[in-house]
Description:
alpha+beta, five-stranded mixed beta sheet, globular
Amino acid sequence: MQILPKDAQKAMLVGRIWHPQHQGPCLVVVQDGDIYDLTSIDIPTMRDLLELEDCTGYVAARLGKAEKLISVDALMANSLKGDADKQQIHFLAPCDRQAVKACGVTFASSMIERVIEEQAAGDPARAEAIRKRCQAIIGTRLSDLEAGSAAAQKVKEALIAENMWSQYLEVGIGPDAEVFTKAQPLSAIGWGACAGLHPASSWNNPEPEIVLAVNSRGQIKGVTLGNDVNLRDIEGRSALLLGKAKDNNASCVIGPFIRLFDADFDLDRVRGAELRLEITGEDGFELEGESLMREISRDPTDLVAQTIGANHQYPDGFMLFLGTMFAPTKDRGVKGEGFTHKTGDRVSISSADIGLLHNQMKLSADCQPWTFGLADLMRNLSARGLV
């Protein structure tokens, strides 16, 4: 399994690992297939690194002094056990003190699926009939619309006349983006850890997304991959259940590394990225798909500007999921009900310029519970003389 970008030799990849000697996290960088420790009193956390004006320059300068910890292959082997042994070095999510935010309904295809969830009130048995009605009325017209434009307003008026307007279309093509809190700082899981599904859900799916790493000044410093695990039946019952549908144990997956922006990799490369999804079930079920970032309805800089500014600050920065166009409709079991996860599913999310994120699905209560919070981080860093 290749988890590094296609041009890994040129990529500046930073992340976090659990170090058993310290019983806590270390900030790391990848070089020539190995993992090196960047942690220092100057830069003890990922938040601190991303706050630097020239974080790539800092990492490059530190590389000659950094201690080699483990190879990428050995780190993967340790982490693939699902709920990794704390006595072994293993992947953590690459973010730490940052807020974890997410944008919803930023692609036309997922807009339509959200409308279907709402109209079906979370009942997958009604989904196929509603999907056909939506497509007959809407078709693919939404994919070319600029959110908040005069043309989008005309489409809104037409859909209201057809009694098909929805709160999801409001945030999909209206002037204001949907930005919600996906998870608490330090609660995201990393590469290889078991990802969680709430047991109350019987209609759910992965949401493969590109995730921006943004500092407290609103500067996008790099990108990574994420799975914004989605419970379609819960959110479909009511948008007010978004917290129950989105924020559960092990339901926020980020990794494997943050690729920092530099002379070889910038936001334009992200705008042109292709995202791939592969799901393999223990029952032999397989699903594959691709998503093109150029089909997003709002530019990443617009989504960042709607998240941070004079009215809303993030002194530790934030990670921002950009939304997904994936809403798998391939039947798995009952005809017409589309896709839903089964425990044991293996999910791989990849992009050639960013890498590959891999996890296995379990029920949330069966995943390793989140026990290492901000107070634990501060005590750990203090004991190591890093703060």
